[in-house]
Amino acid sequence: MKGRLLQQEQSSIEGIHVHDSLSITCIPFPQGSLWFYLRWGRVERCPNLCSVFATPQVRDGQSTFVYLSTFWASQLPKACYIWNWNTLSHATVSSFRYLSFLHLDCCPRLMHVLPLSVYMDALPSLETLEIVCCGDLKEVFPLDPKRQEKLETVEFPKLRRIHLYQLSALQAICGSRMSAPNLEIVKVRGCWGLSRLPALSGSTSKRPKVDCEKDWWDNLKWDGLEANHDPSLYEPRHSRYYKKAHLPRVTVLRWHVDPMVLWCLIS
């Protein structure tokens, strides 16, 4: 495996960079630490990676990825999950407490990013969410079924920037209702299945700017001013390009343009 770990000792890994590996299928959990002190991670150009992190066996009340603040994944053509936590329901409230920056690009089979259990806050430190060219992604942060049944509004108190590009299967970011009272910028292209934006603080003095297609904006669903979820609370800026036809699942841009070049073009 081509990669490197930045650590003081085996039990306190602080950084991980995994790249250009033809053999790795997932990153195993080290014994004992469960990545407790990991602060940043970058995983890219690993064509056979199916799940970025292996599913941990977590005891009730045990925390994991507590100090992770930055995560970047790029060009993982077989990855279905970043954190495959379908069977994990007991991660504590402190897990992912400091995650502030999340970027994913060119992961065409990705189905979801991080399921939120009944014991977890909704990423209280997340400020930036960037996802580009992940055609199978249906929901970014799916809720535990018990939370989904309650139809709760999940709050992301520090979320400021959302950038979603060519996510043809995306239905939701997190549950049926989410709130981002400090949202500043939203950029959306090619996400025709996404029908809702987050609720806001209700203030009209500093409205978040939304750069999107007019067709998409016109079809969004709203709960009304009383729920702080109304188009008047946003400032839309429509692209001069309009939807003419659905793009194919795999496009020329996805595979033949360097992701960093693509990112500069669409930012």
UniProtKB/TrEMBL annotation:
Please give the InterPro entries that the UniProt record associates with this protein. Answer: At4g27190-like_LRR, LRR_dom_sf, Plant_NBS-LRR
Gene3D superfamilies reported in the protein's UniProt record: Ribonuclease Inhibitor
> Where does the record place the Disease resistance protein At4g27190-like leucine-rich repeats domain?
85-197
Protein name (record): Disease resistance protein At4g27190-like leucine-rich repeats domain-containing protein
Origin species, per record, is Triticum turgidum subsp. durum
The upper taxonomy is:
Eukaryota, Viridiplantae, Streptophyta, Embryophyta, Tracheophyta
